[in-house]
Specification:
- With about 170 residues, the chain is an alpha+beta fold.
- The protein has two domains: about 5-35, no CATH class; about 50-170, Immunoglobulin-like (Sandwich).
- The protein has one helix at about 10-35, and strands at about 55-65, 70-80, 85-95, 110-115, 125, 130-135, 140-150, 155-160, 165-170.
- The strands form two sheets. Strands 3, 4, 7, 8 and 9 form a five-stranded antiparallel beta sheet that branches. Strands 1, 2, 5 and 6 form a four-stranded antiparallel beta sheet that branches.
- The longest helix has 24 residues, at about 10-35.
- The chain starts with 10 loop residues before the first helix and ends with a strand.
- Residues about 35-50 have low confidence and may be disordered.
Amino acid sequence: MSVENWHIDDKMGAILVLRRVAFGLLILVITLISVGCLDNKDNSLPESADYLNHPLELVEAEVKLNDSGNPEARVVVKNISPKTVDAYMVGIFCYDRFGDKVKPYAQGSNRFSGINQRTVRPGQTFGDDYYWTLRGHENTTKIEVVLEKVHFTDGTMWIPKAGQRIAIKGALDQ
C-alpha cells in the first residue's frame, strides 16, 4: 500500500482510517485479555499505591506442626506491585507460648531466615501450601514475619527504607 492511499481527501477516507484504528484497538484489547493483563478478578492490583512502599503484602501467617511434631511456618503473600517477583526473603521471629524468644539450641537469635525463589506474578497470591520447617526453633508457637527484601525478574530489588517494617503475626492453632 502506497503513501498516497493514506491521504484523507474526503469523509469516506477519514471513516476508513477510524475503522482501521478502532479494529486495531479491539485486537489489542482482546489480546491483552487473553493473556490475562486486563483480568479484573482476584489477581487484580489494588487501587491504592501501596506497592510503591512495599511490593508484597503479607496476607497470612501461621504455625503448624508437621508429622514429626516440628513447627512449620506458613506465610501467604500477595504481589501488589506491577512487576513479577522471582525471590523474596522474610525474617521469621520465633516465640513460645510465654512470648519468650525461641533460639536455636538456646543460643543466637530467634530469627529464622525464609527465602522463596518461586515466581509470583502481579496480583498473584502465593504460600497457601508452602511451609518453612523451623529447624532449631522446636518450641515455637508464635511467629512474627518481617518482609526483608524482594527481587524482581527485571533484576531490580526492593528493601525497606530505614525504620520501615512490613510485618504480620501468626500462631499455632490448637
